[in-house]
Design brief:
By secondary structure, this protein is α/β, with parallel strands linked by helices. Helix content is 46%, strand content 16%. It has a seven-stranded parallel β-sheet with strand order 3-2-1-4-5-6-7, sandwiched between helices. Strands 10-11-9-8-12-13-14 form a seven-stranded parallel β-sheet, sandwiched between helices. Helix 10 links the parallel strand 8 (233-240) and strand 9.
Length: 433
């Protein structure tokens, strides 16, 4: 089955390259560093010991921040190789780890073809491979075993839908999963589903996203953003996905909230202009973050919609709002992480579809930090009720902060699981010299 999978990859390469070029029309980063996707690099691999952490895109890269910092602190002579699949993930990593200098190096993960992955491993010679969340690639795992690189899947999550998909491909995914040395799962449910694929051992440690510290610079930016929204209550619709903005804007046009500013931050930057057109087509006044001044702006009620068309400022948007709706949940897309708004003490609203983050979302609702809504109209209705009830709004904010505080510590637990993998591999490498 893996042979057929590899053949399919080779046959698909022309289409894959065309897709890179096509996506590069909307997001230029896809046309950069293409050689890295084939295991070619201009610079030599980092000298000394290297721990490889793979974070596919923005969410995984943000989640990796406390783990990267913990690895660098635990092993001062170590470097971290951080790989990505998307330009936005790479840009996020560059911003997060700019202060680490040469101790953090970034590149794209090569395509999952055996000889390409083997070239990547020979170039960087990592002590261990740490995959964030859900990344399981058959040839990557096979080549790691061949090159004696232990693999850990951390902050791991697996929805019921993803489990069913993996089980349909059991002949391919089963052998791949059994090559993983350890799994640090977010929840008991995640652990049970991952174990069903034949992975062992699986430990439940929680989500490292709870350990992400709110950058002081983001809180300062939040204050500046909010200063430009005088006498306003702010409803943030964060990480919205294709199709959701239309639902939100239609509901807003039908029943706008008085003296409330609607802020929309699409998850994917290539959609910023598309969402701007949606706003203007509905006769609403568009204010773009990229064009707004840092000082006070002439907002005057709900007629304006603020488009958050910037990268790397999500914490600032959460800090500037009063209530946050977390997108990806109005349509059956699985939802997004709601930990960030909880970490800054904001009441959270979610839609009906949160299967990718089911346990954390359900726990937040049970803790009084979040409210589930059936559709966009109910999102506005619930927001309106909270805006009209300051005491309840403040209570939900406190409960959100407490929810985030109680779930911290996963990074420390994950690091203790990784320690033997990294140190045993380092000792073995020294012993062969």
């Amino acid at each position: 089955m893996r042979w057929l999978y590899s053949l399919a990859w080779h046959l698909a390469l022309p289409a894959v390259l065309f897709r890179l070029w096509w996506r590069g029309k909307r997001e230029a980063g896809y046309r950069l560093h293409v050689a890295e996707r084939f295991g070619w690099y201009r610079r030599a691999g980092p000298a000394g010991r290297t721990v490889w952490i793979h974070a596919v895109s923005v969410g995984e890269t943000r989640a990796a921040e406390p783990l990267v910092d913990a690895v660098l602190q635990a092993w001062p002579d170590c470097r971290v190789l951080l790989t990505h699949m998307t330009p936005t993930g790479r840009a996020t990593g560059a911003a997060l780890f700019a202060g680490h200098g040469q101790r953090v190096r970034q590149c794209y993960l090569p395509y999952d073809i055996g000889w390409i992955v083997a070239r990547f491993l020979r170039h960087f010679r990592p002590l261990a491979c740490v995959l964030m969340e859900t990344e399981v690639w058959p040839n990557l795992l096979h080549q790691c075993v061949r090159h004696q690189v232990p693999v850990a899947l951390v902050n791991a999550r697996l929805s019921a839908r993803s489990l069913r998909r993996a089980q349909r491909l059991h002949a391919l995914m089963g052998p791949a999963a059994r090559k993983i040395s350890l799994v640090a799962a977010q929840t008991d449910e995640d652990a049970r589903r991952i174990a069903a694929l034949g992975v062992a051992p699986v430990e439940v440690v929680g989500s490292v996203k709870f350990d992400v510290a709110v950058p002081p610079a983001m809180l300062q930016l939040a204050a500046r953003l909010r200063a430009g929204m005088p006498a306003q209550q702010v409803l943030l619709c964060a990480s919205t996905r294709d199709g959701e903005e239309a639902l939100i804007l239609d509901a807003w046009t039908a029943a706008p909230l008085e003296n409330v500013l609607l802020v929309i931050v699409p998850r994917h930057p290539q959609r910023f202009d598309e969402v701007a057109r949606m706003i203007e087509q509905r006769g609403l006044r568009l204010i773009r973050r990229s064009a707004a001044d840092a000082g006070p702006s002439p907002f005057n009620g709900g007629a304006a919609v603020y488009l958050g068309d910037s990268m790397g400022e999500m914490f600032a948007y959460y800090g500037a709002c009063d209530i946050a709706f977390v997108g990806g949940s109005l349509l059956p897309l699985g939802g997004q992480n709601l930990i960030e708004p909880c970490a800054v003490g904001k009441p959270v609203l979610v839609g009906p579809h949160t299967f990718n983050f089911a346990a954390i979302t359900d726990a937040a609702i049970a803790a009084g930090a979040a409210i589930r809504c059936s559709d966009a109209a109910q999102v506005l209705e619930q927001a309106g009720r909270l805006f009209a009830d300051a005491a309840r709004q403040q209570q939900m904010g406190r409960q959100a902060l407490e929810f985030a505080r109680q779930h911290r510590g996963a990074t420390t637990r994950t690091l203790e699981l990784l320690r033997p993998l990294i140190e045993n591999r380092a000792d073995a490498r020294v012993g062969t010299r």
